Amino acid sequence: MDKEKTVKKIQQFYQKRKRMPSFSEVAELIGYKSKNAVSKLVDKLVERELLSKDEQGRLLPGRLMRGVQVLGTVAAGFPSPAEEELCDTLSLDEWLVPHREATFLLKVTGDSMQDAGIVDGDMVLAERGCQPRSGDIVIAEIDHEWTMKYFVRDGAKVVLRPGNTKYPVLVPRCELKIAAIVRGVIRKY
Amino acid sequence: MDKEKTVKKIQQFYQKRKRMPSFSEVAELIGYKSKNAVSKLVDKLVERELLSKDEQGRLLPGRLMRGVQVLGTVAAGFPSPAEEELCDTLSLDEWLVPHREATFLLKVTGDSMQDAGIVDGDMVLAERGCQPRSGDIVIAEIDHEWTMKYFVRDGAKVVLRPGNTKYPVLVPRCELKIAAIVRGVIRKY
DNA sequence: TTGACAGGTGAACGATTGTTCACTAGGATT
DNA sequence: AATCCTAGTGAACAATCGTTCACCTGTCAA
Predict the structure, then answer these.
(1) Domains of chain B in sequence order
(2) Nearest CA-CA partner of A114 in B165, B188, B117
(3) Do A97 and B148 touch (CB under 8 A)?
(4) pLDDT digits over B165-188, tens only?
(5) Residue B86: is its pLDDT beyond 50?
């Protein structure tokens, strides 16, 4: 049986059932009648690092299961199908969210950050409990009002600068609380 | 044992081991000495839809395992911790990538789409094999050169319009191939 | 023709799975 | 004081898990 076909079948299984198949299930997937054949096949796939196994022998989902293919750049030309094989794969969840507990998603309204490429309707990935550095985009409460702005430290003074020349720079009068730092932007069409 | 604590322990286990724990493992996680207690506890968590089970009784990873919290909008004010409990969670992979096989990630170079909020260094999620509609952003080969532009249909004529007034509209001379449609944009800081 | 070898079958193995039963201890209610 | 209910223990159960063995085919090289 073709090894690539097997991996694809397992990928489909994983996507549908949200877990890795057992050896018997793999046998059923690719038409084998014996778990042993699967065992040998899996061992070879593990050797090639296309799959990996538990300490109990169970199959583990690797990057091939969750990820999305990563190709080159647009301007540099479109990669040919032959090159795609060599490319890496990436799990969006793992890539964008290193700390699940402290991270949340926020919908953006308004155009006050459009020069930063963040427009109305975008989703913003924010991480709580971090120390902001000058230049970071932050979710902040300034004088009892919530906004998303650039965090700029100018000597001892701290201001919030919008990413749009239409709006003024905000200087905190009585209070400034930084709730979270923006770690990523997501837009869906 | 606190039910929320249990779910969090399971979440940690899932994030570390990339699979759901067995009942014995759950028992070890939360300090039980009997699988039966776990069985009853899990049944209640399933009733509350905090977990779900296989047809074989095994635990399945739900949205709680993969997802990121979704909060409200920035301009509308920052939700209080009390509200967060009610909020939904979202798996980025499942949300952004409905068709894994046909989707890939591309790095953006240049500023030809900056008015669309796509700037240099962004990652773009593109889907192969779709019919583009007028107004979609596409990855295209025009006269043997690859670019990312708006796809605009004007009667029988088709042009590629950049998202930046600095650049001219592209009218295909000899050939225009649409390779993929841009489904999403991802930026990481 | 012979030998080696990869690929698959089928059956048995111990280990671990989720489920189920009987049972105990502690609170709360009646 | 008597009752009910929840929460947890411990042991037994069939089912399934991954592994391993002997065995049967082809195919390719010597």
Answers:
(1) 1-61 (1.10.10.10), 63-96 (no CATH), 103-186 (2.10.109.10)
(2) B117
(3) no
(4) 999 998 888 888 898 999 999 999
(5) no
